[in-house]
Amino acid sequence: MMLDRNIAAEVLARAVKTGGDFAEIFLEDTTKSNIALKSGRIESMGTAREHGAGIRVFEGTKAIYVFTNDTSREGLMECAAQAAAAVRSGKGCTPVGFSHWSTARPEEIRILPADAEAARKAEKVRAANAAARAVSPEIVQVTCGFRDVTQDVLICNTEGVFVTDRRVLSRLMISAVASDGKENQTGSCNPGAGMGFEIFEERVDPEACGRLAAEKAVTMLHADSCPAGVYPVVIDGGFGGVIFHEACGHSLEATSVAYGISEFSGKLGQQIAAPCVTAVDDGTIPGEWGSTHIDDEGMPTSKLTLIENGILVNYMIDKLGGRRMNMAPTGSGRRESYQWAPTSRMRNTYIAAGTDDEAEMIATMGTGLYAKSMGGGSVNPATGEFNFSVEVGYWVEDGKILRPVRGASLIGKGGEVLMRIDRVGKKMTMAQGMCGSASGSVPVNVGQPMIRVSSLTVGGK
Fold first, then answer.
1. Taxonomically, which superkingdom (predicted)?
2. For residue 258, what is the DSSP state?
3. 117 conformational bin, left if phi > 0, alpha if psi -120 to 50, beta if neither
C-alpha cells in the first residue's frame, strides 16, 4: 500500500488552504479473518477487508476529521476540501517536505496470517474445544474462535512525516460453560499477541487454554457466594492488571487530563500511589498485543513510566492533547481504524515487578479475598470510581485459602486503591484485551505481578 508523495503533498496543501495550522492523512488497508466453532462444529469462517483514509486538520486546539473509502486522488482531495471547509480563521501553515521512512520489520512475523491455511487454523480451534470438553462432564458448551488481523498503514502530515507500517495480530478465544442442571457458570481464556500463525509455536498452547477455560467454569459452578464487606484483597497477575488499566490508566490519558476532568489532572510530581508502586505504559515490547512500531499519528512509540515509586511522572499524550496541555506527545495516539480520529490511549500498561513474596501476601492478609482472575470493569475518569467483576475468586481466612467464591466484585476509587497497595510481587505477567474509548476499540495488554490492597470494598452476597 502506497500513496504517491506528490499526491499526498497536494492533498495536505488543500487541507490547510483555508487556514489550518496542521493536516494529516491516515491511510489504511486491513485484512481480517476469523473462524468460529460451536457445539463441536465449525460454525463460520470469513475474511473481510477494510480500506480507506482519514484526513485531520487542526485549527489551534480545534480538530476537524473527515474520512472516506475513496483513496483516489479525487477522493482524497474532496475529503481534504470538506475538512478545510470547517476552518474559519486559522493561522495557516507551510507544509514541510517529506522524509519517507518505514517501520516495518518483516522478520518479526514468520507466518503471515494469509499464509496459514484455514485447515490449520481449524485444527487449533478443534484442539482447544476437545481439551475443554475433556475436563468434566459438567462442561455443556464450548465456543472457540481464532482471529487474525493484518493492518497496513501510511501516515503523513504537514510536519514532514511520511511513514508506513504493518501491524499483525493473532488471537485464540475460548469460552466454556459448566452446568449442574440448575445453573450455569462460564470460564474463558483469550490469549493473543502481535504475531502471525507462529503464535502457536512460540506462545499459545490451544489444549492448555481449553482446559483453563473449562476449569474456571467448573470451579465457579461449585463455589460458594462471596461475602460482602471491606477486606484485604490479593489480586493475581496477568488480567489482574485490568484494575490499574481502568481505575488509573484512563485517568492518565490526555483524553481526560487535557480537559481537567481527571482525578489526576495537575498532579505531576505528586504522590498518587504507595511507594512500592511503579507503573509503565510501553508500546515498544516486540510481539506484544498492544505494541506498534509507530502510533497512529506517525510518531515512534515509547516506553513511558507513568508512576515511579508512587510519584506521578508522566501522562499519556497524543498530538491534539499535547496542544491543549502545552506538553509534548508521547507516541500514545491510537485509533480503531481510518473511521476514527486518534486520541491518547494505553498500549501495554502494567504495574512493574516488585520485591514481595507472593505466598507471604496471602499468609499475612488475615481474612479477605484472593482474586485469581478478573472479569470486566468500568470507571469514571473524573472521579476514579470503578467497579470490576471477579471471574475466579477464593476466600481466605487466617491467611489460608479455604474455598472458591463467586459473584465477587471490587468497588472503589482509583486514587484510594493505589495508596492502599502494600505488597507487589516479583513476577509480572500480562493478559490481552480490547479497550473502548473516544477513538474506538484498540488492542491493549494489561499486566501486573500479584499485588495486595490492604482494604477494598468487596461486593457479594
1. Bacteria
2. T
3. beta
Domain boundaries, the chain: 5-221, 224-459
For residue 260, the tally of other CB atoms under 10 A from its CB is 11
DSSP, residue by residue, 38-79: ETTEEEEEEEEEEEEEEEEEEETTEEEEEEES--SHHHHHHH
Q: What is the pLDDT of residues 319-329, one digit of tens each?
A: 999 999 999 99
Residues 6+ apart with CB under 8 A from 214: 131, 132, 133, 135, 136, 139, 142, 176, 178, 187
Q: Name the grid cell of 75.
A: 477522493
Rounded Cα gap, residues 411 and 157, in angstroms: 44
- The fold for domain 5-221 equals PmbA/TldD fold (3.30.2290)
| Rounded Cα distance, 64 and 245, in Å | 29
Q: At what angle do helices 5-15 and 73-84 cross, to 10 degrees?
A: 20
298 close to 161: Cβ distance less than 8 angstroms: yes
Q: Please tell me the predicted confidence (pLDDT) of residue 243.
A: 85
Distance CA 404, CA 190 (A): 22
Say if residues 185 and 178 touch (Cβ distance below 8 Å).
yes
Q: Which of 253, 232, 261 is nearest to 417 (CA)?
A: 232
Q: Which three cell numbers stand for residue 243?
A: 484494575
- Contact between 389 and 375 (Cβ < 8 Å): yes
* Integer Cα distance of 87 and 371 in angstroms: 51
Whole-model pTM: value is 0.94
142-158 residue pLDDT tens: 999 999 999 999 999 99
CA–CA distance, 271 with 422 (Å, rounded to integer): 15
Q: 3-state class of 448 per DSSP?
A: strand
The C-alpha atoms of residue 73 and residue 7 are separated, in whole angstroms, by 7
Instruction: Show the low-confidence residues of the chain (pLDDT under 70).
Output: 1, 104, 106-107
Residue ranges with strand state E in 265-399: 279-282, 303-308, 311-312, 333-334, 343-344, 348-351, 368-380, 385-397
Predicted local confidence at residue 380, as pLDDT: 82
Contact 94, 88 (CB under 8 A): no
Which residues on neighbouring strands pair with residue 36, listed in sequence order?
A: 44, 145
Q: Is 334 helix (H, G, I), strand (E, B) or coil?
A: strand
Tell me what pLDDT residue 1 has.
64
> Which residues are CB-contacts of 353 (< 8 A; sequence separation ≥ 6)?
424, 425, 426, 427, 428, 449
